[in-house]
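The passage that follows is intended for readers who have already worked through the single-chain material. We present the inputs for a multi-component assembly, then the predicted structure in tokenized form, and finally a short commentary. You are encouraged to pause after the input and sketch how you expect the pieces to fit together before reading on.
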Amino acid sequence: MFLSGAFLGLSTFQSVEGSNIPLRHTYQKIRIYGNATIDKLQIKNIEMSDEDLQNIIMTDNSIWDINTLAMAEFENDLIAGNISNLINPVTKWQVNRREVSGSTFKVLDVVDVGVSEYIDYSAQHGKNYIYSLFATSENEQSEPLECEEIETDFFGYYLISEEEGKVFKFDLNVQSGTKQYQEDVTIMDNYTEYPSIAMGRRKYFTSSISCICGTVDINGQLQQSNVYVSELRDFILNSKNKIFKTRRGEIYKVFCSNYSEQQLDDGIKEQPILVSFNLTEVGEV
Amino acid sequence: MSPNNISIDANLPITFTAKIQGTVATHYQLKILTMANVVVFDSTKLILSPNLYQNDTFSYVLNSGLTNGIQYKWTLEIWSNTLSAISRETPFYCYATPTLISTVPELITSKKYTFQFAYTQAENIPINRWYMVFMDIFDNIILQTPYSYSGNISYEYDGFVSSQTYKIYTIVENQMNVITQSPIYTFNVSYSAPSINFVPNVTLLEELSAVKINWSNPVQVNGVVTGTSSYVQDLFTQGNVGLKLNDASYVEFNVGIPLNFTTIIDYIPDETFTGGKILEHINDEGITYEIGYDSVLGCFYYKNGILIINGVPKELPPLFLIAVRSIDVLIIVNNQIYERLTP
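Having made your guess, compare it with the prediction:
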């Protein structure tokens, strides 16, 4: 039996004999008694509101959601879990993504069964995605469990490290440099009217970003602590490839270099720091 | 000029091509020689009809007659009226086309399978590198393996989905740079796949320009009936099934229930129901949280440890929904609260 995430311990709440404080406990099993016909058992790990409970349509099939602990439809069986027909225990989840207009899934990652969350940093602005999961065991793989379609909508320049789960957004007085593509072209003069051209496969761009370093709080005030500046500096200079997203929704794998900080006026204690760095495209995301 | 330093199969027609440089070509002569300068083929001087001009492609198909396993060279002489130009000697090799086959079964009964391909070549030219391509039924490429330089063409694919059809082929490049593709093999996959009953949740994380997917962990819970029971077909609606528990029978589910919870169930007491327990939450230490109907007092009751709460006398409805929360119980009839048992 798999009960990952369930609460199996005893409650810390105990009643005082003679008092009217109700006993609150954790439980390990339930029993439903006859003489009766029963249907549609659900056990949730939340206390549902009166309103939600009164809105339940008894004949409707339920959906297993993030708060469901057990659910039995009694469709000629007594299954109350979310997985059945399993010979070996589930060991991994395979996380996939496809565009609504496409039919082929891209495998994003394969994570251990105890993991129940995945963040896709490689999602691109302006796309309609469908994510899906496969549960895999030693010799089996489930049908894909598809999420609802999601439309991505981000606006800004982002520098992301998937490995570290770190994201820096550049939005304050941001200026992007010219996106200069580097090619491998050799023009060879010969004895004819025109030269011959030889072209290699090289095709990557270099560019730059400069912006005021920091974040804006809910009051519209610039927050630019030394810790933040230091984190950004270390992040950019850590010599690892990163994902770079543009305001137009383009996405690239880049290497950052030539980082610089400029304090606009040394006479003022708290004033913005302008940071800038170069980007070199190093691969596909 | 082509072929140029490549390998071709002498058992197949060989096409010789060259690009014309000059104003006009009226005649040609193609010669093939061994590396020891023995002429094995001479077309003799023939008319080009039509004439060829600057940048046109000369093409000649030789129904071979050459021998595999031998290196040759060829030259082409072109005449423009009385002037002629002769190409440099261009080498090529003749080797038999390799064969590349597999015994892919029509049905695979596991999510993983090791595919093996057999490469053979008459002159024993070894493999340089190879890769395999896996496709779905619509020819979308699912996986193209990286180049392997192993002489053993073998790859284990892990991740076939049951009830799907796939295709596979392999490309091999041998040490004479001859590229060979295997036939495309089609196969079905069928095995007892786990059935999972939940929908993962997806959320846009705008500030991170990312998308979060979260899901429930697999929970395997099966009820066990003590006593006697049967399934009731077409309960409420056509096709819906319920569980009839006979008198003194119960169904038990082992499931960890936290402090805050809600348990819901549709309950239809039999006409012969004489009162007693309806639903019970049980702790391993023997602490129970029991809901029932007291037929003597004519009311629902709630018993949590030492605490017993009786509702006001009310008839037992013929069909109701019980919702048990950690500190109270609702009996709901026709989407209205019929009884609330609260300490």
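Commentary: Chain B is about 0% helix and 55% strand. The longest strand of chain B covers residues 24-34. How closely did your sketch match?
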